[in-house]
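Most newcomers find our protein records easier to grasp once they have seen one. Each record describes a single protein and holds just a pair of labelled lines. A learned vocabulary of local backbone shapes supplies the integers on the structure line. Nothing more is needed to start thinking about how sequence determines fold. The record below serves as our worked example for the rest of this section.
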Amino acid sequence: MQRTRIKICGITRPEDAEAAVKAGADAIGLVFYPPSPRAVTLEQAATAVADVPAFVTVTALFVNPSVEEVQRVLDSVRIDLIQFHGDEDDDFCRQFKRPYIKAIRVRQASDVVASCVRFPDALALLLDSYKPGVPGGTGETFDWSLVPDTLPKPIILAGGLDPENVATAIEQVRPFAVDISGGVEASKGIKDHGKIKAFMNEVYRVDQHTRTEN
């Protein structure tokens, strides 16, 4: 059994990035979507990830950006992976010559299966809750039974996760990774370092339990 990877998204401050790294996060996320309460400027982003060490993936999240907007971020901030959260197609996503993942707002199981075909170059699909007019960050879970048991791409589970429900989510979906933002916050855009540790510990606990069972 492989361990479940963990991404802490919505990082806005260097101290929160440091807390995520020290707790063992595999990736951190920077939101470049101005309507989001967790959005960062280029300067904030560069400062937040200045001391993030090697082997922690810095991810840039965009929602229906222009080519120029994406390129400006790539030219100004250390970005290892791009996360597209809007209506972008595969051609748009792969033009930046950078690894990318695609977020899918799940309404039915066929959404997930079809997206594996529609985004052949995506390294993984991030599954989030569907809410009309909201591209993500709803803080709400979706029906995890809609996730097919076998898919040709790794799955990153997001949407309403927190230290209390992540174990159940992992046991049911068995995703490659989990992605959390609001569930480890003291307020929007400000992380609670205790909640980060609690979340990480729950993921480690359920992974260990799963290995023991198998």
